[in-house]
Design brief:
Layout lengths: L7 H24 L5 E3 H8 L3 H9 L6 E3 L2 E5 H10 L5 H5 L3
Antiparallel strand pairs: 1-3, 2-3
Length: about 100
């Protein structure tokens, strides 16, 4: 079996490929919810809000929900869309060149 020598460029390329693979895996984990429909405690934990704040979001129509029996369910995609729609960009960051 012949011996192969790994060059610095080979190692750098391996590092880039591994980092890209890890980044892709982390994005898949963060993007895909475990469940499509979330209950109130899950939404409160996800958003870091109180039961009263969640109730306010329901009442004022900010956050759509479905009620079945006594349980309230929220669509994960609705939550993501609301967060994206309300995303604020800091004006200072727009002027910085990185």
């Amino acid at each position: 079996m012949p011996t192969q020598v790994a060059t610095t460029d080979d190692l750098r390329e391996l590092k880039v490929e591994m980092l890209q693979s890890i980044k892709t895996m982390l994005e898949e984990i963060n993007v895909k919810p475990v469940k499509k429909w979330l209950k109130s405690p899950d939404v409160r934990k996800m958003l870091g809000i109180s039961p009263g704040t969640l109730q306010t979001l329901r009442i004022n129509g900010t956050l759509p929900y479905t009620k079945m029996g006594g349980a309230l369910y929220y669509d994960y995609e609705d939550i993501q869309n609301i967060l994206s729609e309300n995303k604020k960009q800091n004006k200072l960051n727009n002027n910085l060149n990185f």
